[in-house]
Write a structure and sequence with these properties.
about 300 residues, alpha/beta
Length: about 300
């Protein structure tokens, strides 16, 4: 019996690093990996995606399909039910290793009728509807924030990388003492792009010959809603945006917190992004926003370095 791993990302700029971590921690023996081309939309029915169809063609009765989270495979109720029907028909098991569905046996059937148990069907539909609602609400908030930022003259989207012809100038200016923030403004790119161009010159750079880097594990922290609202309108790197988009909203009175799972480095980057909430740079500080940022800062500061 084979272990068939399915992976997918929704945008070209995203990576499967988080999925890889979850699947490695699951200890899957001799996995056979089927990975969709980058940017394969979740709106495309799973049974129409090239790599998932290839997986089903390859599979044999008794094999197990492994995915990190349910939304990597399906979107909405009907997708889930369609996939479960095909897996049952082909006598394949399904293992989800993270998220709400990881605690459920989605293949449970009635011993006499062979139909999907009504309780399983109800839970699948409820959780899928809640997840879809959460993603839609987050998307609406993001769009509203971007429109508000554009109305103030801000330009959304990710800035380009440093052009090859400018890399030498950037590195020379950095060695002469020019800051990363100033270089980013000068060349119209993100700070991350400048860091990439001068990566081997940074003080904390270590040569690869010293050994592989220590793998950081994701940590779940509650981010105050006011911080999350601000970050949704801010330019973020792909890993930061993915962590924010995949956060789980927890309602608290009239507000909410966003339960974000990410490696400590990403939490620290997100904390740095919301520094303007403390005031400065010609912007007034709003007490509620400043308090929310300080709460998040306390939680991030408690993480091991």
């Amino acid at each position: 019996m084979a272990n068939l791993v399915y992976k997918r990302v929704s945008a070209d700029q995203q990576s499967t690093a988080r999925q890889d971590l979850v699947l490695v921690e699951a200890g899957i023996e001799d996995p056979i990996v089927f990975e969709e081309d980058p940017g394969t939309s979740s709106r495309l029915h799973p049974l129409q995606r090239p790599k998932f169809r290839e997986l089903l063609t390859y599979a044999r009765p008794g094999d197990t399909v492994h995915i990190s989270e349910m939304f990597r495979l399906v979107r909405g109720n009907q997708h889930i039910l369609d996939v479960l029907e095909v897996l049952h028909r082909d006598q394949l098991a399904l293992r989800i290793h993270d998220g709400a569905f990881s605690a459920m046996d989605l293949t449970a059937r009635h011993p006499r009728t062979g139909e999907l148990l009504s309780t399983v069907k109800f839970m699948v539909q409820t959780l899928a509807a809640a997840g879809e609602l959460q993603r839609d609400l987050q998307r609406e908030l993001t769009y509203d924030g971007l429109r508000a930022a554009e109305a103030k003259g801000a330009k959304g989207g990710r800035r380009p990388a440093v052009a090859a012809a400018q890399t030498a100038d950037v590195r020379t200016a950095y060695l002469e003492g020019r800051s990363i923030a100033a270089l980013a403004r000068d060349h119209g790119v993100s700070r991350g792009a400048i860091r990439t161009a001068v990566a081997d010159l940074l003080p904390d750079h270590t040569d690869s010959e010293e050994g592989p880097p220590v793998l950081e594990l994701p940590v779940t922290l509650d981010m105050p809603g006011k911080v999350a609202d601000y970050l949704r309108t801010t330019e973020l790197e792909p890993a930061e945006r993915a962590a924010l988009d995949q956060g789980v909203t927890v309602r608290r009175g009239q507000g909410y917190t966003l339960r974000v799972s990410a490696v400590p480095a990403v939490h620290r980057q997100l904390l740095a992004r919301c520094q303007p909430l403390d005031g400065g740079q010609g912007l007034p500080a709003v007490p509620a926003q400043r308090k929310a940022r300080r709460e998040y800062e306390n939680r991030v500061s408690a993480l091991a370095p």
